[in-house]
Amino acid sequence: MSANSATRSRCFYGPHFNDGRLMMAFEIKGLNKVTNDMKEFQKALSELDGEIGTVKFDPEDPGSIEVAIQDMEHIIEEKLGRYSSNPFAGPMMDQIKETMRDQIIQKAQEVRDNQEEEEDDERQ
Predict the structure, then answer these.
(1) Does the pTM exceed 0.85?
(2) Scanning 27, 54, 67, 103, which has its CA 20 to 30 A from the CA of 18?
(3) Tens-of-pLDDT digits for all 124 residues of the chain?
(4) What is the SS3 assignment for the chain?
Protein backbone atom coordinates (compact mmCIF):
# COMPACT_ATOMS: atom_id res chain seq x y z
CA MET A 1 0.00 0.00 0.00
CA SER A 2 1.56 3.29 -1.03
CA ALA A 3 1.65 6.33 1.19
CA ASN A 4 -0.56 8.18 -1.28
CA SER A 5 -3.34 5.61 -1.11
CA ALA A 6 -3.10 5.27 2.67
CA THR A 7 -3.20 8.97 3.58
CA ARG A 8 -4.88 11.96 2.09
CA SER A 9 -4.32 15.45 3.28
CA ARG A 10 -6.29 18.61 2.83
CA CYS A 11 -4.81 22.00 3.53
CA PHE A 12 -6.90 24.84 4.84
CA TYR A 13 -5.64 28.36 4.88
CA GLY A 14 -7.87 31.35 4.90
CA PRO A 15 -8.96 34.55 6.58
CA HIS A 16 -11.12 32.64 9.04
CA PHE A 17 -7.93 31.74 10.98
CA ASN A 18 -7.02 34.77 13.06
CA ASP A 19 -3.38 33.85 13.58
CA GLY A 20 -2.73 32.95 9.91
CA ARG A 21 -1.42 29.49 10.73
CA LEU A 22 -1.74 26.60 8.27
CA MET A 23 -4.11 23.85 9.36
CA MET A 24 -3.92 20.35 7.84
CA ALA A 25 -6.51 17.61 8.22
CA PHE A 26 -5.49 14.01 7.56
CA GLU A 27 -7.79 11.24 6.51
CA ILE A 28 -6.56 7.67 6.77
CA LYS A 29 -7.94 5.14 4.29
CA GLY A 30 -7.34 1.40 4.16
CA LEU A 31 -7.43 0.54 7.86
CA ASN A 32 -9.87 -2.30 7.20
CA LYS A 33 -7.33 -4.02 4.97
CA VAL A 34 -4.55 -3.55 7.51
CA THR A 35 -6.83 -4.86 10.26
CA ASN A 36 -7.73 -7.93 8.19
CA ASP A 37 -4.08 -8.51 7.32
CA MET A 38 -3.16 -8.34 11.01
CA LYS A 39 -5.90 -10.83 11.94
CA GLU A 40 -4.65 -13.21 9.27
CA PHE A 41 -1.09 -12.70 10.53
CA GLN A 42 -2.23 -13.68 14.03
CA LYS A 43 -3.65 -16.90 12.59
CA ALA A 44 -0.32 -17.57 10.89
CA LEU A 45 1.50 -17.01 14.18
CA SER A 46 -0.81 -19.46 15.93
CA GLU A 47 0.23 -22.09 13.35
CA LEU A 48 3.75 -21.78 14.73
CA ASP A 49 2.77 -22.42 18.34
CA GLY A 50 4.53 -25.56 19.51
CA GLU A 51 6.74 -27.88 17.51
CA ILE A 52 6.85 -27.00 13.82
CA GLY A 53 8.40 -30.26 12.63
CA THR A 54 11.44 -32.51 12.71
CA VAL A 55 14.04 -33.24 10.06
CA LYS A 56 16.82 -35.85 10.13
CA PHE A 57 20.09 -35.68 8.24
CA ASP A 58 23.61 -37.04 8.06
CA PRO A 59 25.93 -34.12 8.94
CA GLU A 60 28.68 -35.73 6.85
CA ASP A 61 26.56 -35.89 3.68
CA PRO A 62 25.87 -32.59 1.86
CA GLY A 63 23.05 -34.27 -0.07
CA SER A 64 21.38 -35.34 3.16
CA ILE A 65 21.71 -31.81 4.54
CA GLU A 66 20.11 -30.38 1.40
CA VAL A 67 17.21 -32.87 1.63
CA ALA A 68 16.70 -31.84 5.27
CA ILE A 69 16.58 -28.18 4.23
CA GLN A 70 14.02 -28.97 1.53
CA ASP A 71 11.96 -31.04 3.99
CA MET A 72 12.04 -28.18 6.48
CA GLU A 73 10.92 -25.70 3.82
CA HIS A 74 8.08 -28.05 2.88
CA ILE A 75 6.98 -28.28 6.53
CA ILE A 76 6.96 -24.50 6.85
CA GLU A 77 5.04 -24.11 3.59
CA GLU A 78 2.45 -26.63 4.79
CA LYS A 79 1.98 -24.61 7.98
CA LEU A 80 2.13 -21.10 6.51
CA GLY A 81 1.71 -21.40 2.74
CA ARG A 82 -1.90 -20.22 2.75
CA TYR A 83 -0.69 -16.96 4.32
CA SER A 84 2.15 -16.34 1.84
CA SER A 85 0.36 -13.41 0.17
CA ASN A 86 -0.18 -11.71 3.53
CA PRO A 87 2.15 -8.67 3.72
CA PHE A 88 3.23 -9.63 7.25
CA ALA A 89 3.19 -13.44 7.16
CA GLY A 90 4.81 -13.88 3.74
CA PRO A 91 8.08 -12.17 4.66
CA MET A 92 8.03 -13.90 8.05
CA MET A 93 7.72 -17.28 6.32
CA ASP A 94 10.73 -16.47 4.13
CA GLN A 95 12.73 -15.37 7.17
CA ILE A 96 11.85 -18.54 9.08
CA LYS A 97 13.00 -20.67 6.14
CA GLU A 98 16.28 -18.78 5.96
CA THR A 99 16.83 -19.03 9.72
CA MET A 100 16.04 -22.75 9.81
CA ARG A 101 18.30 -23.37 6.80
CA ASP A 102 21.16 -21.59 8.59
CA GLN A 103 20.48 -23.60 11.77
CA ILE A 104 20.59 -26.92 9.92
CA ILE A 105 23.88 -26.00 8.25
CA GLN A 106 25.31 -24.73 11.54
CA LYS A 107 24.23 -27.86 13.43
CA ALA A 108 25.82 -30.11 10.78
CA GLN A 109 29.06 -28.12 11.06
CA GLU A 110 29.02 -28.36 14.88
CA VAL A 111 28.60 -32.13 14.73
CA ARG A 112 31.45 -32.45 12.22
CA ASP A 113 33.67 -30.21 14.36
CA ASN A 114 32.89 -32.26 17.49
CA GLN A 115 33.64 -35.51 15.66
CA GLU A 116 36.99 -34.12 14.51
CA GLU A 117 37.84 -33.07 18.07
CA GLU A 118 36.96 -36.52 19.40
CA GLU A 119 39.09 -38.17 16.69
CA ASP A 120 41.99 -35.85 17.56
CA ASP A 121 41.63 -36.70 21.26
CA GLU A 122 41.66 -40.44 20.46
CA ARG A 123 44.87 -40.10 18.45
CA GLN A 124 46.70 -38.44 21.33
Answers:
(1) no
(2) 27
(3) 444 444 444 544 444 455 666 666 767 778 899 999 999 999 999 999 999 999 999 999 999 999 999 999 999 999 999 999 999 999 999 999 999 999 999 999 999 999 887 777 777 7
(4) CCHHHHEEEEEECCCCCCCCCCEEEEEECCHHHHHHHHHHHHHHHHHCCCCCCCCCCCCCCHHHHHHHHHHHHHHHHHHHHHHCCCCCHHHHHHHHHHHHHHHHHHHHHHHHHHHHHHHHHHHC
